[in-house]
Amino acid sequence: MTDPVTRRRLIVGGAVGLGIGIGAAASFPFWPDRIKRIIDPPPPAFIPDAEVGQVSLESVYSESRDMDVDLFTAVPAGYGNGKGLPVVVICHGATATPADYEPFGLPQFLTQAVDDGTPPFVLAGAYGSVLRWEPQPDGDDPQAMVLEEMPQWLDERGFNADRRALWGWSMGGYGVLRMAEVQPGWAKAVAAFSPAVADGDPVFQDIDALEGTPLGIWCGTDDGLYSNVEALVEALPEEPEIWSYGPGGHTRIYWNDQTLDAFEFLASHL
Which of 115, 170, 188, 242 is deepest in the core (most CB within 10 A)? Predict the structure, then answer.
């Protein structure tokens, strides 16, 4: 790698949101940073001053999880109920839920992206608990909820369920990469912020399955997962379309600063 800070191709690039893989919390080195942020909190994360379109948070039954889960959807302002629009499916980190997406400013980011010239799309995401978006021995399967049930939910709400991409951060960043391996082609593109990956986990074991999937990967250089994400990028069977490393930690502040770039990248494949 020639540039230790930032490498991008194709496009240039208040609450703290954290998320980690279940069973790995104690070993992830960003925990001391989290304690520091509690003692000396940073300024609020950036949210665009843009109009909010139609936003919904509803409860749906997931057969794959055998429970009711929250389902969030957001349409950019000016596009009504979003009928016929493609969808970016969100996978949250371990400490977030779909109820956090509106406070995170995702509806404003969506409208701002469209106002900036990005082709319109819908955001949608369901609750996956803290299970790394992996099937569990007890039958609870948030991965199948996304891959098998989400298209039907999107279609029922009038969105274009056949044109879809994946976006997630931290544990959700791991989740979207894993889903792209388990079912190649399900997503037309995948964006991962600070994915909670580690050498030897299933994402690394099946990494060759990501060949052919347009990828965008972002991680802050102050993130405890930075070296793991660098190793992931180096191990990929082909270069991602975007890989961006810049100042920032495992925080909503860093992730919000990258969101418009990610939306532009994902929409370009929808």
Answer: 170
Do β-strands 215-220 and 242-246 pair in parallel, antiparallel, or remain unpaired? parallel
Judge contact between 192 and 213, C-beta under 8 A. Answer: no
| Rounded distance between C-alpha atoms, residue 169 and residue 196, angstroms | 8
Total-model pTM:
0.86
E strands of 53-176, at which residues? 55-62, 67-74, 87-91, 122-126, 164-169
223 DSSP 8-state letter: S
Domains in the chain: boundaries: 7-267
Q: What angle do CA 146, 150, 153 make, to 5 degrees?
A: 160
d(CA 74, CA 71): 10
Write down the number of H helices and E strands in the chain.
8, 9
Structural fold of domain 7-267: Rossmann fold (3.40.50)
207-259: pLDDT as tens digits:
999 999 999 999 999 999 999 999 999 999 999 999 999 999 999 999 999 99
Reduced to 3 states (helix: H, G, I; strand: E, B; else coil), residue 190 is strand
